[in-house]
Amino acid sequence: MEGTMKRRSFLSAALAGMSITGTSAAPPKVRAGDIPTTTFGKTGVKVSVIAQGGARMDLYPDIQAAAAHVRKVYDLGITYFDCARLYWDGRSEEAYGIGLQGIRKNVFLTTKTVKRTAKEAEQDLETSFRLLKTDYVDLWQAHAVQNQEDIDKILAPGGAIEAFEAAKKAGKCRFIGFTGHYDPEVHTALLKAYDKWDTAMIPIHAADHAYLSFEKATLPVAIERGVGIQAIKVFGKAFLLRSLSPTECLRYVLSQPGVHVAICGAGTQGQMEDNIRAVQNLKKMTPDEIADVRKRAVVGAGVYTGPTMEYWKKKA
Fold it and tell me: Which of 109, 225, 247, 308 gets the most CB atoms within 10 Å of its CB?
């Protein structure tokens, strides 16, 4: 996990200066309300179609700077805030807690736990509450589900699922879900093994179809169950930007049936403003546009295709 976080930070930093518009002209000012909203699957909750991700808060020099960013993107109209217990060793949650003070009830706030037993997961949730400065989250998720062993541990007697069910019953979370990016068959199996998931977080991007595709294996099952889908790896960890514009990446993801929210780890206000511009007056891609983007995503990436690009997936 440490290596993954280091790569995430490196690639995120590399993107910091990129413009989504592809032009040097001053972009139009973004105003709150410019972001389309969507109904987040079976939750029935209206949320912004792009979300602030919590994994890149570590690009900021300190918690206060990260918290200021959180408040700024809220002011721009973002209502979905994604986080996790392990992000930035808990400092991402702390930044959210500070940045969302006074407006907590106006946002859809999520967090995650990698703990697989009920006792440890419950302890994680209480820590999250303290750092987030709240007594409930809208969505609590089992984080980084990678294999059948994870499924077995989560669903076993005394497993994390007991903490999730208890928290939902007690009003400590409104909805429950799971996340991961390693193996689409594992996600599909977990959706089938437990029918009370409200949401799932999976990698969806223009090159996913070419290698161990979540879009092919998992998304149809999620749609059948009405599960709210959050897309991650939207820009292919920057590799897709070799051949596609960020706008094309976002349009592709939000054109996929069953995808409700694109998680964007924007590390600056400018990046999030660019993301917002990309989805203003959002139009779904046509089948021809989708085919073109998929082709360019794979061919244009050069040697960075399949497992070389999607290093977060298992090796086939």
Answer: 109
Whether the CA torsion 81, 87, 92, 97 is positive or negative: it is positive
Q: Which residues, other chains included, contact 89 with Cβ-Cβ below 8 Å and sequence gap of 6+?
A: none
Which pLDDT tens digit goes with each residue over 242-255? 899 999 999 999 99
> What would the pLDDT profile of 123-182 be if each residue is shown by its tens digit?
999 999 999 999 999 999 999 999 999 999 999 999 999 999 999 999 999 999 999 999
Q: Model's pTM, two decimal places? A: 0.90
CA angle 258, 260, 265 (to 5 degrees): 130
